[in-house]
Structures are given as C-alpha cells and as structure tokens.
Amino acid sequence: MNSLPPKTAQSSFAASSPRSCVAVWPWPIALGGLTTFGLLSALLGQHGIWLALSWGSLSIPLVVIVVCLIRAWSRPSSKGGLS
Amino acid sequence: MRNLAVTGGIFPISDAFKGVCSYGPGGVLRRTELRLTLTRICERAVFMTTRTLRRWFVVHKWTSLVCTLFLLIVCVTGLPLLFSEQIWDTFVGDDDPPYEVLPPGTPNVSLDVVVAKARTLYPGQIITNVAPDDDEPAVLVSMAPSWQALKDDENYPDRNSSHWIKFDARTAKVLEQSRPADGPKEPRTWTGIIMGTCNRLHISLFAYLPGRLFLGFMGGVFVASLVSGTVLYGRFMKRLQFGSVRRDRAKRLTWLDLHNLLGVATLVWATVVGFTGLVNELQTPLFGLWRVTDVRQILRPYADLPVPSQDHLSSVQAAFETAAKAAPGNEVTGLSFPGASFGSPVHYVLWTRGASALRARLFTPVLVDARTGELTGAYPMPWYLRFLEISRPLHFGDYGGMPLKILWALLDVVVIGVLVSGLVLWAGKRKMATDARLRALGYELDDADATADPTMAAEGVR
User: The complex's ipTM?
Assistant: First the structure.
C-alpha cells in the first residue's frame, strides 16, 4: 500500500485511464478458502485437531476485518488497508 | 478508430471477423485489418462491461432490497437460537430428577419390560413411539388415547392428545411424565415466550408452511444478491487495496468500503448458511416428495391392511436388535409403532443413523414386521433428503462445540453489519436523488456535501 502514490489508491474505479490495477481476488479467495476449510474440517473431522483447525480458520476472516477497521480508524488520513 | 469501435458496438460480434476472411492470404492489408479487429473486440468488451455492470448493479440492488428486512429478522432471531441450550439451562434450569447411582456396567432392562410398564400405567391407550436417549440412561415412551385422536389433533392447533413417560433405562422406574392435557398448563416463562417467538419468527414468520416456503425463497434471493454483490465487488475494488476503508472523503465511501470489506470477508459463510437455510425450509415438501414416491412404493403391499391390536405385536427389544443387524454401522435411535401417520399399518419403523461422525446425521429407516418380528428391509433415504440432513449442521453451527457457536454468532453480527451498511447506501442514494429533484425544482438546500463531492458523479453506475 505504501508503494502506491496516494492518488492511485484514492481514485475511483470509474476513472477512465488504465492506471495500475491491484489484484482484487487473492484476499477474498484466501478468506473464502479458509472459511470452507473451517466449515468442513469440523464437520468431517469432529475431533481434536480438526475442531481446533476449524475454529482457527473460521476466526481468520473476523481477525482480518478487525485489523482493517483498526487500521482505518487509528490513522484517519489513511487511504489503504492491508497491502 | 475509437469511433469505429463505438459504432461497431451495435453490430453483432461475428461482423468483426468479416474483414479477416474476405481478404486474400498475406499482405499488409490483412494484418492491419486483424489488428484493428482485435482492438475493436477489446473495446467492445469494455463497452459491454459498463452495460453489464449496470445490470449487475440493478440485480444486486433489487435482490438485496427484497430480502434485507427478512434477513435482518432471521439474523437477529438466529442469535438467541444459537445458544438456546445454554439460555434454557441458565434461566429455566434442568428440572430432571437426578439419576439413581448404580454400579457401573449395570445392563439396561429389556425394552419390552419398559413397554409393558407403560401399558399398565395407561391401560387402554396405545404406544406411539419408543426412543432411548442418546446420552442419558433413559427411555422416552410416547402414548396417546388412539391413532384417531392424534389424527384429529391436526384440526385443532392447541390440542395435543399425545403424552410421554420417561423411564430409567436400567431399572424401568418412571423418572418423569409430561403434564396431562386436561391438567393445569405449565406456567409460561419469559424465556419460553422469547425463545418461542424467536424460533417461530426465524423458521416461518408465524405463517406455518407458507412462511417457511417464503423464507426459503428469500434465502434463494439472498444467494442471488451475494453473487451479484461479488461481481460488483470485483469492479469497485479494482483500484483499491483489499480492506481499504476510506475515511477522509465522503461518508458514503466509508459506508461503501465497510459494506465491501464486511461482505467479502463473510461471503462464503453467508452463502453456505443462506443456502442451507433455504434447503432446511424445503424439508416439508422434500419429505412429502419422498413419502409419495419411494415410501408409497415400499408400503403399497401393506397399505390396506388393518392396524393390529397392540396386545399381539412382536417384541420391541427384538425389533431393535433386528434393525441394528439390518443397518450395520448404524445405531438405532427410535421405534414407531404400526399405524403412525407416516408408516405402515403392520410394521415397526425403526430410525437408525450412522455411528461415524460423517454419517451421524444420515438416517436410514428400517421396517420390521410387527406381526412376525421379521425384517422387511432397510431403506436409505434419497439423495435430496441426505443433502437436507447434511445441510442442517452447516446451518445451525452446532457441530463444533461452543467456540464454533461463538464464531457463528460473530459472523452473524458481521452479516447484520453488511445488511445495515447496504441499507445506509441505498437510503443515501435515495436522499441524493430526492435532493437533485428538489434542486431541479428550484429549492435551495443547505447540505452541500452530497453534491460537492466528485466521487458521487464518478459512481455513475449507481
């Protein structure tokens, strides 16, 4: 995020010039994969380590949300989130 | 060139290739034409995207608007339901008498003894169901004055002629009984009222089967809104780092970023819970479908036989053992007597379920002829009911202990956040449109921030 000039981070998607795009999908795919793993590991494993893995992987999306919110609210002028 | 492409946008895509085919082999002309054609296709793709995007936006707006209110109800009422066991234990308490302390390894008495004891307690009544408890040494026996009385109950929502007796499985002593129907009604507790209201709102909006189907439909609409929301997310986030929440610009952008962040982080969970909720709401029609297809087929040879008197039926204990053998790897969870509305007039229906963790929710009914005690068959459920059984835990979140329930609750709260932020965005847009209309009519409006912001204009697709 810091590597990008602030203008780029702010600009709305509707800007017509093809300025640097960011990879949109890696984070959502990773979070979705973790959620899927968490939902299934407890269902199929139902014991010990699988339960713990399920709790761990399902809580990561929540942790990511909290981190993003803390970042946004602790630095009022920040324009970015996780990089 | 740009003009060419834009005007080309109205022609079907096959036209773009015409130039390539009509020129002879080789030559500069052909290469230029090919390059031009490729550019034209690319530009057209961009052109299409804006139009397609607008369509996706309309889909997202309307699907979300249709289901938001009901989803808010379902999300809020779902929270106490998640912890209903703990809530009951905390506020009402477990009023079961304590179990007798017996030497470990004391065998259970035969179920025939339990059944006989139930009959002597209520002579002249019928037994409808025998169900050993799965984690306490108890057997629950359900009784009723007659099958006809149970059938008549269906016409009177507040009548219930069935009652139950709880026996100690090891001593066949009566532990507890349901309150008699004509006796004083159980005093209603606040916990009971609140939990009952939440439950009925969550499942059917107090509207029985139509309510269930309606909520199921709303589940489908919700999934459609999630899909369209994901497409929009891809477009909105093109120039934004993941997780950005812009707070130094218009309030609306903060709400939009929040909506995107909360939505995408819980996307898979919301899709799974929404879709399994839809499947759960379909359980009545799905069981009905099974009943009129497979079950009717199996029971056809017995359909017209009279229900035999319960004095001359074969051993209940033996039926449990026969069923356990007929469905290897399964445990028997209960038995219904012949004559039950869903079963056969002459068979015990035994419900067995998988003993392994994965199959624990897959039920296989076993029919045992109650006149002879012989096995008729085990009938695995069709795929759609197996799918329903798998859908249940994924909706309730009750399969991974307390931490999973807490995670379920937190994710539910985040989804409520997504719904609320979506509503705020929609309401903001409506206010803006109204303001623009008022300005057009010549009214002077005070708050300038809504129109002064250039990003508003940029959000042309909205």
Answer: 0.74
